[in-house]
């Protein structure tokens, strides 16, 4: 099938590459000429396992093209995916200007039936706005090609996006099918997703608004689980319980399950923080207050400060003269994404109290340098206190303690003897509960996990 993808960001690029991989003829559009040049020369602007091979293979096979030519992109695909950014407005609501600009472009140039698929995460009701924008442009041109607007939210996890697209748990498609155009769109979407419905039907067909809502409900539910576990973990620390034991104890109940119950130093990324806020905002538009979600957000803001708080409790408010090693900067492993990353909060807490830090991440160094330079733009003297190092071991030298913020696999089995000999004091603050408190204590470390309270029990 001929497919157009508008927006070659994270979602658009993965969607386009994976649809080409199963044999479709895919045209990717972006306004950013620099990005298009990188893609056409075989590079990819983001770090995502497996993606660059798929992109290279499909460019070579002639099934994947990148361009800034709007008219050509609208002419190409009978199915047009809108996968542009929806950054939060100042008030937390999703900014739809790029989505609606894409819709208007389609309306301006289309000459035949088109299915417009909202792939960007957009608030409930956006499909209606997209439909209106296209209809308005068609009216201006006095043109009456048929079209249907479909909602098909993505559930891709960064670092596993290719796998999630190729082998999805579920495909959610919202179509209002009471018109012939809607029925035609259903048939096209069914054909398009056939290769991804292995073994059994994985597609949930529903109305457009329910599909739009599903995306927010899923992310809000997951964020809620994490914040709730984090709150329980903080209490576990006080009462002397081990949140990992508790996780096993409750996770064995199939109604609860084990996944997404890991306590840590807070969630980050491009989805949870933004989607939680946007859903609250939608609720307010309808005079509703999502009290649970407000708490989820507040708990997460506090949780991002938890490692810093533990360090301050141990070393005091004034950290001048102190030096800390930080392992892990990206908001989670297998990505270089620094958006809303807890590491940024921790670094600010430490350097603003006079400490210096040596920071390391297996892939996010360049992005971290860029983002932290911006974070400290108005306080360049604090940026001077951050040393970017190229190995985890180099970060340790003469550090008063090690703080782990991201659970990269390479951090899981360090050489503990070396670690101990390099640190000025054998103190580890583990924001992702990578290690067992007892083993760390036996190995001579002063170890602080999240909700693991070994200290409290020892006393
Ligand atoms: C998420 C959703 O999982 C995905 O379905 C959606 O499409 C986009 O948002 P992503 O943001 O890539 O994906 O990352 P995810 O793996 O879900 O992790 C989000 C954050 O939660 C990370 O900071 C992670 O460290 C944190 N997390 C996750 C926890 O703190 N505890 C957990 O148990 C799980």
Automatic annotation (TrEMBL):
SUPFAM superfamilies: 6-phosphogluconate dehydrogenase C-terminal domain-like, NAD(P)-binding Rossmann-fold domains, UDP-glucose/GDP-mannose dehydrogenase C-terminal domain. It is an enzyme of class 1 (oxidoreductase). Residues 325-437 form the UDP-glucose/GDP-mannose dehydrogenase C-terminal domain. Pathway: Nucleotide-sugar biosynthesis; UDP-alpha-D-glucuronate biosynthesis; UDP-alpha-D-glucuronate from UDP-alpha-D-glucose: step 1/1. The keyword Nucleus does not apply. Keywords: NAD, Oxidoreductase. It holds the Pfam family UDPG_MGDP_dh_N. The keyword Oxidoreductase applies. It catalyses: UDP-alpha-D-glucose + 2 NAD(+) + H2O = UDP-alpha-D-glucuronate + 2 NADH + 3 H(+). It comes from the Bacteria. InterPro entries: 6-PGluconate_DH-like_C_sf (IPR008927), NAD(P)-bd_dom_sf (IPR036291), UDP-Glc/GDP-Man (IPR017476), UDP-Glc/GDP-Man_DH_C (IPR014027), UDP-Glc/GDP-Man_DH_C_sf (IPR036220), UDP-Glc/GDP-Man_DH_dimer (IPR014026), UDP-Glc/GDP-Man_DH_N (IPR001732), UDPglc_DH_bac (IPR028357). Substrate binds at residues 155-158, 215, 260-264, 268, 332. One of its GO terms (biological process) is polysaccharide biosynthetic process. PROSITE patterns: PROKAR_LIPOPROTEIN. The active site is at 271 (nucleophile). Its EC number is 1.1.1.22. NAD(+) binds at residues 30, 35, 86, 121, 158, 274, 339. GO terms for molecular function: NAD binding; UDP-glucose 6-dehydrogenase activity. Belongs to the UDP-glucose/GDP-mannose dehydrogenase family. NCBIfam families: NDP-sugDHase. This is UDP-glucose 6-dehydrogenase. It comes from Noviherbaspirillum humi.
């Amino acid at each position: 099938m001929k497919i157009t993808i508008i927006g070659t960001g994270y979602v658009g690029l993965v969607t386009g590459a994976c649809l080409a991989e199963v044999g479709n003829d895919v045209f990717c559009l972006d306004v950013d000429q620099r990005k298009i040049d990188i893609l056409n020369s075989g590079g990819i602007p983001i770090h995502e396992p497996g993606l660059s091979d798929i992109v290279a293979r499909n460019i070579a096979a002639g099934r994947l093209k990148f361009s800034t030519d709007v008219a050509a992109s609208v002419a190409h695909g009978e199915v047009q995916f809108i996968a542009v950014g929806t950054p939060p407005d100042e008030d937390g609501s999703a900014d739809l200007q790029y989505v609606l600009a894409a819709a208007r472009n389609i309306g301006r140039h289309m000459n035949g039936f088109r299915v417009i698929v909202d792939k960007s995460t957009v608030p409930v009701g956006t499909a209606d706005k997209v439909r209106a924008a296209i209809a308005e442009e068609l009216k201006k041109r006095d043109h009456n090609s048929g079209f249907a607007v479909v909602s098909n939210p993505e559930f891709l996890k960064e670092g596993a996006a290719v796998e999630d697209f190729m082998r999805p748990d579920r495909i959610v498609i919202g179509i209002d099918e009471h018109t012939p155009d809607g029925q035609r769109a259903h048939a096209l979407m069914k054909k398009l997703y056939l290769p991804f419905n292995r073994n059994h039907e994985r597609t949930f067909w529903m109305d457009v608004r329910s599909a739009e809502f599903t995306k927010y409900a899923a992310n809000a539910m997951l964020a809620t689980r994490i914040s709730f576990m984090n709150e329980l973990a903080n209490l576990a620390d006080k009462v002397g319980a081990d949140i990992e034991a508790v996780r096993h104890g409750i996770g064995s109940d199939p109604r609860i399950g084990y996944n997404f119950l890991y306590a840590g130093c807070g969630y980050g990324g491009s989805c949870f923080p933004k989607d939680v806020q946007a859903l609250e905002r939608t609720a307010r538009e309808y005079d509703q207050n999502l009290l649970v979600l407000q708490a989820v957000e507040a708990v997460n803001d506090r949780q991002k400060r938890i490692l810093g708080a533990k360090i301050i409790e141990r070393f005091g408010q004034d950290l001048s003269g102190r030096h800390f090693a930080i392992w892990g900067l990206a908001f989670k492993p297998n990505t270089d994404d620094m958006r809303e990353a807890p590491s940024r909060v921790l670094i600010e807490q430490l350097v603003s109290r006079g400490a210096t830090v040596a920071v390391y991440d297996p892939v996010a160094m360049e992005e971290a340098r860029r983002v932290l330079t911006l974070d400290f733009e108005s306080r360049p003297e604090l940026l001077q206190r951050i040393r970017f190092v190229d190995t985890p071991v180099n970060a340790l030298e003469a550090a008063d303690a090690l703080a782990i913020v991201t659970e990269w696999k390479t951090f899981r089995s360090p050489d503990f003897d070396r670690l101990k000999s390099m640190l000025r004091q054998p103190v580890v603050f583990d924001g992702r509960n990578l290690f067992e408190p007892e083993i760390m204590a036996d190995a001579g470390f002063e170890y602080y996990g999240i909700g693991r309270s070994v200290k409290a029990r020892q006393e």
